[in-house]
Design a protein that fits this description.
- By secondary structure, the protein is α/β, with parallel strands linked by helices.
- It has eight helices and five strands, in the order E-H-E-H-E-H-E-H-E-H-H-H-H.
- The termini are far apart.
Length: 205
């Protein structure tokens, strides 16, 4: 199964999975209090959660361990392989070294149940920060690739500088996508775009 790209995942998003509706409701409340604009998905078993996550991947996954159908260990492994940037938080009432060793192959944060609002808030915010860092790194890599691609195209220097300025801010993913589409144009389309840009610059001066 191919990994999903980090830019395809909403930044402020979380899936909360537990076979206890009471726990899901409580954790959802804590997560909302920590991040008022967060988008929350919920599920009450591992299999449903996995199906939902593939349709709508999230930046954070908050999981229980003991669940019907698919347990938290298997679910965490599937999420990690599909979306390595998703922060996985495991809450369990039976948290010990033996349980934690089951997650040795993937990066997971742990907390005991019942969890306090402080525990949930702290771990959700930390997971979102890590996700945003991964997203920023991915955008910076995209900017670097575009800079290399620009040097292979037959644009004049002012146009190349225009493109470089356009993608200089890695936060602006929409600008990166615009330049990518321009670079995919054929020679005639790029030539027409060059003329349009030159005319625009002349009008400004």
């Amino acid at each position: 199964m191919a990994n999903i790209k980090v830019k395809q995942i909403p930044v402020n998003s979380i899936i909360i999975v537990d076979d206890s509706k009471q726990v899901v409701t409580l954790h959802s409340k804590f997560a909302r209090n920590a991040c008022p604009d967060i988008s929350i998905q919920t599920a009450y078993d591992g299999r449903t959660a996995w199906e939902d996550f593939q349709k709508n991947p999230t930046a954070v996954a908050m999981l229980d361990i003991e669940m019907p159908g698919m347990n938290g260990v298997e679910l965490a492994e599937k999420i990690y392989r599909y979306s390595p940037s998703t922060g996985i938080i495991v809450f369990s009432g039976k948290l010990n070294q033996q349980v934690m060793l089951k997650f040795a192959s993937i990066e997971v944060d742990f907390s005991k149940k019942p969890a306090s609002e402080f525990d949930v808030s702290t771990k959700v915010r930390a997971a979102l920060r890590r996700f945003e860092k991964d997203l920023m790194i991915e955008k910076m890599k995209a900017c670097a690739r575009l800079t290399v691609d620009l040097n292979t195209k037959q644009f004049n220097l002012p146009t190349i500088e225009f493109f470089r300025d356009l993608v200089a801010d890695p936060k602006c993913s929409d600008k990166i996508e615009i330049v990518q589409k321009i670079l995919e144009m054929d020679f005639k389309e790029q030539n027409d775009f060059q003329k349009l840009l030159d005319n625009t610059n002349r009008k400004r001066t």
